[in-house]
Design a protein that fits this description.
The chain is α/β, with parallel strands linked by helices. The strands form five sheets. The protein has a seven-stranded mixed β-sheet, sandwiched between helices. Strands 9-8-7-10-11-19 form a six-stranded mixed β-sheet, with helices on both faces. The longest helix is centred in the first third of the chain and has 20 residues. It is globular, with a radius of gyration of 24 Å. It binds NADPH dihydro-nicotinamide-adenine-dinucleotide phosphate.
């Protein structure tokens, strides 16, 4: 455990089941501060019986929760959002300790985005209705019903935001949830569970179990679980989707990407450089939707790279709790090593290293490769670190073809001042979310999710409700029954 008591983040217990703090009975789970490597909390995983118990408790709590008037469920979510915003500073600090991300990011991007999801779905609660279908004398209606117990499984880059994004639409629809954060970042979800309880949520509606992949796997196949929502990598997504299929469970898959950011030569260069910075280096590049393949139209490449190098000179790496730090450490040593291996592979393949490089210790600086080709690993594989690959193109059709030449389809960006071109190109890009003249903005009002290998289902917006509910059709006969015999 850390010698510095200020950095201790020990929760009351590792799990949260049925409104109670419960200690895990499984293997130890040390939580390390990515900046120093110090252990800031020591948790224990849930055992298989504890996972089963959490799911059974959630199953039991579900009918009562669903029987509340929607506006009452919404009110509880809204209260939770208000508590989060009141405590944002403390929560941001905890998020920084859990993830290593700079406090200047966690103050504005993590819990605030989670609170926005709770507020949005709280407002939507009372509007979720079925349809009345006239059939002559007879008629039918639809009821939008909850699925039951939803399992949420999160990645480590935005742990608290992910927990809120999944819980908000699920709970507002009258489902209950068992959430498993990434083993790397187990702390935020426990806070969310406490805040929900304080906001008046009945025990058992939102539960947290901890553990590595096997705990997630046990959750996915638990007989009480009706739906699985995963944020993670494509390989994990494949495993979870296959396991969920055994029980014909619903799934939402928010997976990885290698998204293109296409910059035409009429673009506002300063904005395009700024967007490419946000699209590659925010959260030290650990963002699924990052535009890591930057396609520059011939003619602007060198100006773009020169301006990029100038702006990257003001990067401040260091203590994530220092408000001036704008580039934090990588989540752990294994991930940092993977990123370094990708950088070495880029150099070995002959790409030109314009800025950055391997860095040292927990830090990998913003790294830019130019003169890459589409088939190099730095241009095909998700690195999930601060590595931008610049490619150049001559004309629009070529850019679209090459942008789409990937198995992923999470996001894409286009920079141009030509209004018609912007919409023409986005219409042809194979991506679940596209940005025109900006990048990586994911307001709760807008659906977010991927196509192709990047996933299915949508988070945020009213569209998310469809993925946490099912329709029941009710036919109402108003006359006699006409049978042939
Ligand atoms: P992983 O796929 O390694 O893990 C995601 C979660 O799944 C973790 O909680 C993990 O547990 C759990 N898990 C692992 N194996 C299984 C299994 N067999 N059954 C059930 N659960 C399992 O992803 P990372 O945490 O490394 O996150 C990075 C990835 O997430 C990147 O590919 C990134 O693009 C993607 N991502 C996608 C987002 C989106 O919205 N599309 C947003 C953020 C990230 P544990 O880690 O505890 O072992």
């Amino acid at each position: 455990m850390t010698q510095n008591p200020e950095l201790s983040a020990q929760p009351r217990a590792s799990l949260f089941i049925g409104g109670q703090h419960v200690e895990g009975q499984g293997a130890e789970l040390a939580v390390r501060y990515a900046y120093t490597g110090a252990t800031i909390a020591s948790l224990r995983e849930a055992t298989p019986p504890q996972v089963a118990e959490a799911c059974a408790v959630a199953r039991q709590a579900q009918p009562g929760w669903a029987a509340l008037a929607p506006v009452e469920r919404g009110r509880i979510l809204a209260r939770a959002a208000a508590l989060i915003l009141e405590r944002n500073e403390d929560l941001a600090r905890l998020e920084t300790l859990d993830t290593g991300k700079p406090i200047q990011e966690t103050l504005v991007a993590d819990w605030p985005s989670g609170a926005a999801a709770l507020e949005y779905f709280a407002g939507l609660a009372a509007t979720l209705t079925g349809q009345m279908i006239p059939l002559g004398l007879d008629w039918a209606y639809t009821r939008r019903e909850p699925l039951g117990v939803c399992a949420g499984i999160g990645a480590w880059n935005y742990p608290s935001q992910i927990a809120c994004w999944k819980a908000a639409p699920a709970l507002v629809m009258g489902n209950t949830m068992v959430f498993k954060p990434s083993e790397e970042t187990p702390l935020g979800a426990l806070k969310l569970a406490e805040i929900f309880l304080e906001a008046g949520m009945p025990p058992g509606v939102f539960n947290v179990v901890q553990g590595r992949g096997e705990v997630g796997a046990a959750l996915v196949t638990d007989p009480n679980v009706a739906k699985v929502s995963l944020t993670g990598s494509v390989p994990t997504g494949r495993r979870v989707y296959a396991a969920a299929a055994q029980g014909m469970r619903h799934v939402t898959m928010e997976l990885g990407g290698k998204s293109p950011l296409v910059v035409f030569d009429d673009a506002n260069l300063e904005d395009a450089v700024g967007a490419a910075i946000l699209a590659n280096f925010y959260s030290s590049g650990q963002i699924c939707s990052n535009g890591t393949r930057v396609f520059l139209q011939e003619g602007i490449k060198e100006d773009f790279l020169a301006r990029m190098a100038e702006r990257l000179a003001s990067v401040r790496m260091g203590d994530p709790l220092n408000p001036l730090t704008n580039h934090g450490p990588i989540i752990n040593q294994t991930q940092a090593d993977k990123i370094r291996a990708a950088i070495r592979a880029g150099q070995a393949a002959g790409a030109r290293l314009v800025c950055g490089g391997e860095g040292e210790g927990a830090f990998v600086p913003p790294t830019v490769f130019a003169d890459a080709t589409d088939d190099m690993a730095i241009a095909t594989d998700e690195i999930f670190g601060p590595v931008m690959t610049v490619l150049s193109f001559r004309e629009e059709n070529e850019a679209i073809r090459r942008a789409n030449n990937t198995g992923f389809g999470l996001a894409a960006g286009v920079f141009t001042q030509d209004l018609t071109r912007a919409h023409r190109v986005t219409a042809r890009l194979e991506a679940g979310t596209c940005w025109i003249n900006t990048y990586n903005l994911t307001p709760v009002e807008m659906p977010f999710g991927g196509v192709k290998l990047s996933g299915l289902g949508r988070e945020n917006s009213a569209a998310a409700i469809e993925h946490y509910s099912q329709l029941k059709s009710v036919y109402v006969g108003m006359g006699g029954v006409d049978a042939p015999y």
